[in-house]
Amino acid sequence: MSSKETDTLSPTPETTHPAGIADEKRSQQRTVPRRSFLKGLGVVGAAVSVGSLLANDAEAQSGSSIITIGDVAILRFLAAAEILETDLWQQYAELGGTQDKELPGLTGGSKLYTRALQQLDGDMPQYIHDNTEDELTHEVFINAYLVSKGAEPVDLDQFRTLPSSKATGAQQIGRLTNLMQLTVDTSWWTRYRSRTGNPDFGDMFPQAVPSLAVGQHTAIPRTDDDVQPDPSKPHHISDLTQAIANTAGFHFAFIEQGGTSLYPKLAQRVTSLEVLRILLSIGGTEIAHFQTWHDKAGNSPNVSVTDPATGVKVSFPNLNAPPFGGEDFQTNLIMPEPTVFLNKKLPACSIIRPTQTRGAAMSALAALTADGLFIGQTPEFFRFMKTLAIEADLAVRQ
After folding, report:
1. Cα separation of 277 and 288, whole Å?
2. Fewest CB within a 10 Å sphere: which of 33, 208, 281, 377?
3. Could you tell me if 395 and 358 are in contact, meaning their C-beta atoms sit under 8 angstroms apart?
4. How would DSSP label each residue in 307-326?
């Protein structure tokens, strides 16, 4: 989900339909275009009709359950995003989450990696487990809802071609995402502390951990060599293992702040009140995730290490001390500071940022790509995801 909020698609102007009976009829006719176009956007069925896209006549009259082609496109993009999130969180859960029977494929985890994560917070394994479960339910629910409306669910199984970690605890299965070559944007940290800047106005923000934004870093142990005990260090956790756990801590928040913005962005484009309810309800849990990880990232121990496998250096500084420090970096400022919103002449307001809807889906896809999550993926994967993003960004509230 999005972090670098630069639009990568030419904006589609939002339109407002004039009031009147004739316009309302035209709007409802636009709800169900030709069957061939419906199929192109993933709407299927032997007889696609108004009845297959509306829950019942009463709800259709109120407009609460109309599901338009745009709604379908938005839900399909979000379903794909949730599948990708489930895939990456599953990898974190296998190696560092609470090991129980509620999630598939857990075999005991990586002991020292888990211990290093707990330096950020003792409850990290449970939080990782629960975040994974949440994303799985989002994926399953959105796809089931699409099917209930006669639309095609999203399936990314053909793209599960990326390798797993070889460390103890990881399943040896194909993955959709790559957590071992990340370039993590940590500007979300200063963005949420700024009292004067908002990315919706084009403002830019400094990195909290500059070295994470340079080179490629692993957020999970690649092999057991990454989690060898160091008797000279507290809890026998080596600087390398702690740096990997710290990278994960900042990456957790990077991922979830993207969802925090993506859901309200796309919610502004949906037509169905029921689909709006889905986006607001799921989006709220993304905010809860981000708030949790925002808090934990600030507890990362100060370590500096050069990765012996890649030669890339990473340094986790004391964000409360020079050359950092001040409100832009203070670690206990985890609630959104008031900032400019909508119009710079209006009073400052504590908000989610950004929420500009233009190019939302393509911006999210671009940010995940820049993060390194898809290193090793096929051209077919990128074409599929770009198509979903373009269709979502073309959606217009009717």
Report:
1. 17
2. 281
3. no
4. -TTT--EEE---TTSTTS-S
Residues in Cβ contact with 229 at an 8 Å cutoff, skipping those fewer than 6 apart: 112, 236, 237, 238
The pLDDT tens digits for 117-136 are 999 999 999 999 999 999 99
Q: How far apart are the first and last CA of the chain?
A: 26
The 10 Å Cβ neighbour count of residue 348 is: 14
pTM across the whole model: 0.86
Decide: 174 and 282 in contact? Cβ < 8 Å.
Answer: no
Q: How big, in percent rounded to 5, are the helix, strand and coil portions of the chain? A: 45, 5, 50
**Which residue, 125, 67, 115, 57, is CA-closest to 94?**
125
**Type of residue found at 247:** T
What tokens does 276 get?
């709006």
Any idea which residue has 């999970």 for tokens? Answer: 220
The strand pair at 349-350 and 313-315 is best described as unpaired
Strand, coil or helix: 387: helix
- pLDDT-based confidence at 66, cuts 50/70/90? confident
How far apart (Å, rounded) are the C-alpha atoms in residues 385 and 379? Answer: 10
Residue 137 in tokens: 């339910």
Which residues touch 301 (CB under 8 Å, ≥6 apart)? 119, 242, 246, 316
Specify the DSSP element, H or E, that contains 339. Answer: strand 338-339
